[in-house]
Amino acid sequence: MISSADVLRPGGDIGGTWPAWWLGLLAMVVAGCADPVPPSLRPEPIAWADTLPIPEPEARDPIEVPKIMKDAMAGEMSRVITIRNLAGEQHEALNVTRWDDVVPSAWFEHRNAAHPLTPAQVEVGPTVGNGPDTTGALEIISAKVQGVSPGFNIRDARGDRYVVKFDPKGFLHMSSAAGVISNRLLHAAGYHVPEDFVFVFSKSKLAVAEGATIRGEDFEERPLTLDVAFDVLAMTDTLPDGRYLAVSSKFVPGPPKGPFFFDGVRDDDPNDWYHHEYRRELRGLYVVSSWINHVDMRFMNTMDAYVPPGYLKHYLIDFAASLGSGTTRPHEPREGTEYNVDLWPSLGRVFSLGFYRVGWEGREWEVIDPTIGWLEAEEFDPAGWKPNWPNRAFQLATDRDGYWGAKLVGSFTDEQILAAVRAGRLPTARATDTLAKILMVRRDRVVDHWYRKVSPLENLSVVPQSATGAEENVLPVIVRFDDLGLRKGLWRADEIGYRWTLEHEALRRDWRGRGAAEAGDGRQRIVLGPGDRDPGERPSDDAPTGPDAIAKLEIEVEHLTGGERQPAVTVWLEWDASAGRYRVAGLEH
After folding, report:
1. Dihedral of CA 396/400/405/406: which sign?
2. Alpha carbon of 525 to those of 271, 436, 554, 561, 580: distances in Å?
3. Reduced to 3 states, what is the DSSP secondary structure of residue 307?
4. Are 219 and 145 in contact (CB under 8 A)?
5. So what's the pLDDT on residue 37?
6. Rounded CA gap, 165 and 436, in Å?
7. Measuring CA to CA, which residue among 262, 254, 289, 292 is closest to residue 441?
8. Is 160:180 a contact under the CB 8 Å cutoff?
9. Which domains does the chain have, with CATH numbers?
10. Residue ranges of the chain with per-residue pLDDT less than 70
11. What is the 3-state secondary structure of 126-182?
12. I need a surface site. Which of 1, 2, 243, 491 has the fewest CB within 10 A?
């Protein structure tokens, strides 16, 4: 397999300067020459290691169209036509720990899945206070009418700055609520996001800052006047009392340094070691994005900020094109199903003279509610979901990445989801309950799909045993674990069993067997022993150490009806000579 050195700086540029087919060939050659190193013997990522002080980077403002078109065309082509893909080989994420997880970093911080939040904490999310201070003037610094949605940059009475955007006419609440709800869910999942609020203000509160400008449809900057600002307001609806409703996103601490990409590294950030397409948290973001239908998850909706004490923190921003909202209109069935420029469906239509059709074409649909837009529930397909534009991290996501992301999604309770939806301040209880229930259905479909792509066993441990009364020269090994499929109700204990193999070359152990699942809370156990095989050696005072002390245990969830087996979880056991037993040293799903 390609080593981490090949995709870390300096020098490694997987999918960049070298042709993809050559890299695929190199990967196959290297894979045939080396055995994988057990996780317990690998160097692990270090928590917060990418927050070391660095010189302040320059702000960057990349041109979007060439980048997204390259990803849409060349990226899709290279993703499919490579020796690695033709051989069915996937390159796993590199920044994972020995427990198949990621460490907290400038990209991600464990929250709900590791330490469940209260519904109130989910509803508050990353925010402090109640948003822009409307007791004084809301001073417009700049405005824009070009792009997806019109809006202002404002400064409130406290001096805090916000980006303010409005709902499209006829769909008051739709994009503002979607933006805030998705902000809360992404924050609770663990991603860095700004403080987003739904807020209400009166037209009379607006003032124009000295030197304020507006960027028009031609992208030219012009002086902003209050009358021109009122023209921007005319693009949205008012509340019944005449006030305006908007979503406001508070400027994050520190100067902005432009977006991050979903591939490569940032050359002026010495902390940015892992190529982004090989980061587990960005690959797993595919699953979270599919859940909330964030079809606009592209690099222009990200931001690097130079935060104290002097490092780049990586934010996701602008969630108005999520849930049922397409920002300027409700979502449509194509979105979430096909890229804006989707190479293979497009070629199919061309070569079939238009007769080739995909599932969304011709589908009948209608807006659920003007404040929600359109969002699938029971027909949502977690495996087939696509954002509007491809990005490299999503394209390279593997089943292990998908399972990791699904654990984030599956960590949300019904009460937490409802709390996040309440943060969107939808105008009716009916709309709030409807959107919350759709998210619950989509959550369950995400979990059901991705938990079946691996054997979802977690929290493994070896039960200590006493040698007193042992008749064999080798004691059985009792391993306990949580079966998340049982805990989530995806299968029942009487429907499954566990197949396992234990290999430990140094002790000449090649054991295998089966265990039954037990009814209860999902906590399971299997008893490992030689059966009718050579039991191997009882370790002596000269017990194996280092690599020789590592045993490989593989456990598969087996469905008893039909004999279907889910891909095994690999558990690395290390012989502890002082305790006279194995301990769990790592795992890979």
Report:
1. positive
2. 42, 36, 14, 21, 20
3. strand
4. no
5. 64
6. 23
7. 292
8. no
9. 1-453 (no CATH), 457-588 (2.60.40.10)
10. 1-41, 64-90, 145-148, 216-219, 340-362, 466-474, 539-541
11. CCCCCCCCCCCCEEEEEEECCCCCCEEEEECCCCCEEEEEECCCCCCCHHHHHHHHH
12. 243
Q: Taking Cα atoms as reference points, which of 550, 523, 56 lies closest to residue 312?
A: 56
The tokens for 165 are: 């955007």
What pLDDT does 464 receive? 83
Amino acid in position 375 = L
Residue type at 288 in one-letter notation:
V
Q: Rounded to an integer, what distance in angstroms lies between the CA atom of residue 180 and that of residue 322?
A: 10
454-489 pLDDT, tens digit each: 999 999 999 987 654 444 456 789 999 999 999 999
Beta strands 206-215 and 221-223 are antiparallel
The string of DSSP letters for 83-109 reads HHHHTT--PPPSS--TTS-----SSB-
> pLDDT at position 468, please?
45
- E-strand ranges in 317-359 read none
As a whole number of angstroms, the distance between CA 238 and CA 245 comes to: 7
Q: What is the pLDDT of residue 98?
A: 93
pLDDT for position 2: 39
3-state secondary structure of 273: coil
* pLDDT digit string, tens, across residues 16-48: 333 333 333 333 333 334 455 666 667 889 999
3-state secondary structure of 191: strand
